[in-house]
Structure formats: structure tokens, C-alpha cells
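dumping this here so i dont lose it again. seq + smiles for flavin-adenine dinucleotide
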Amino acid sequence: MEFATIANAAGADVTVLMHGDKALRRFHQPFVEAVIDDLQSRGVTFVRNAGIRQLSRDDGDITVHYGDDATLAVDMVLDATGRIPNVEGIGLEAAGVTVTPHGIPVNDHLQTNVPSIYAAGDVIDKEQPRLTPTATFESYYLYQLFSGQTDAAIDYPPIPTVVYTSPRIAQVACSQRVPRRWAQAWSTTTCRTIGTARLTSKVSVIACWYLMMITTWWGSRR
Ligand SMILES: Cc1cc2nc3c(=O)[nH]c(=O)nc-3n(C[C@H](O)[C@H](O)[C@H](O)COP(=O)(O)OP(=O)(O)OC[C@H]3O[C@@H](n4cnc5c(N)ncnc54)[C@H](O)[C@@H]3O)c2cc1C
């Protein structure tokens, strides 16, 4: 979605072939749909449930084969189907470190199943979003742990996530999907700058259009 926004702004003819019927599943869907509507109004085409079958190249032209028998001729394909942990060939098997398809499992001290080996960053199997500030926070936690400044478990602050579309979508703490499980415990507030705010003493979620709101929150918690 971010690259679609950039490419569209740069004048490219953009088609987004979606695996399912929802984009940015972890984000507040009414906001996501508003971004999609906005991109469509600026000429971006979205194909939901595209079911890509094959890419073929002929004299430099790329053809995307999707659906039952649809094709799309393009100059460039951006594959945004996700990232996998880069754990091959670094000796983890020899060291006996457990690895799953989601990364390296760690305990609440970022310790792997081999007590003398710790892991931090995108490579660990975690619920937290794989973002630079998260990796930085984990690295700093390990520095504090190894230098004897703490022996407590890692305690993540509410983590903001921003989708750099235009307008941006931002949320902090956790997605709105999660809190619905505890809906009775929540109150909802709507105000001018924040699209939706749901607050409890333990969990807070804000989905808003304004990056500044999020950075203010993040800055106060770091
Ligand atoms: C397209 C894209 C956009 C993103 N946008 C954002 C964003 O807007 N905001 C945000 O916060 N995060 C963003 N991220 C995520 C962010 O880049 C990662 O969360 C962050 O870089 C994780 O840090 P890390 O140190 O765990 O891993 P990395 O930054 O990936 O660092 C791992 C390093 O290990 C090196 N390495 C790998 N294998 C070996 C080896 N065998 N030997 C030696 N070195 C090795 C790699 O070369 C790399 O330098 C984005 C990621 C992508 C792919």
C-alpha cells in the first residue's frame, strides 16, 4: 500500500493484486477502506482475491497471470507478500537453537532454548510488530540485562505502527481486533483529531490519521 501510494504519486499506472479481500488486516478496516477509496480516486486499481498463479517474462515484458484466466502486462512487479526469518546457514542447528517458520522462539528475557544464546529484532518469533523501534528496544534491553542493570523480563511499551499511505493510518499498543475480546471492559471516545480511541487502565488503542499524535505518545513512553 505504501509503495502503491509512492508509485501512484510518481505517475505510474498501479494495480494492486490482493491475496484476499482485505488489505492491511492488522489495521482498523474502515480506515483501510478509506485509504483504498482514496487511492482508487487517484487512479490505482485494486483486484481483491486475485489468486496470482504465475509470472512470465517475454522480451522484457512481464505478464502476471491471476484468477481463472486473467492476465496483466506490467513493467515491474513489487512482491509484498511478507518476510521470512533469515536463519539459514548461520549455524543455529549446530548450536542446537530452536527455529520455527516464524523465527527464533525466546522467553521473556529474549533467551533462546540454549541459555547462553539470546536473540533480538525481526528474527525472533514474537507478537510485537517487526519494526526498527522494536528491534532497538530489544537490543537496549539486552544491553541492560548483560550489564547487570536489570534482571526483569522485557516489558514492551505500547508500540505504534504507521502505514505510510496518504493519508497515513496509525495505531499504538495493539490492533483493534485484539481488544474486541474484552469489549465489555472498554469505553469508546471520539474526538476531533483522533478517529477512534479506546482506553482502559491496562490497554490503550488509538487509531488515528495524525502521525503527530502517535509520535507524541511514543516519545513519552520511550
Ligand atoms: C520494505 C520495508 C519497509 C519497512 N518500513 C519500516 C518502517 O517504516 N518503520 C519501521 O520501524 N520499520 C520498518 N521496516 C522494518 C525494519 O526494517 C526492521 O524491523 C528492522 O530493520 C529490524 O532490525 P533487525 O536489526 O532485527 O534486522 P535487520 O535490520 O534486517 O538487520 C539484520 C542484519 O543482519 C545482516 N545479516 C544477515 N545475515 C547475516 C550473516 N549470516 N552474517 C552477518 N550478517 C548478516 C543483514 O545484512 C542485516 O544488516 C521495514 C522493513 C521493510 C522490509
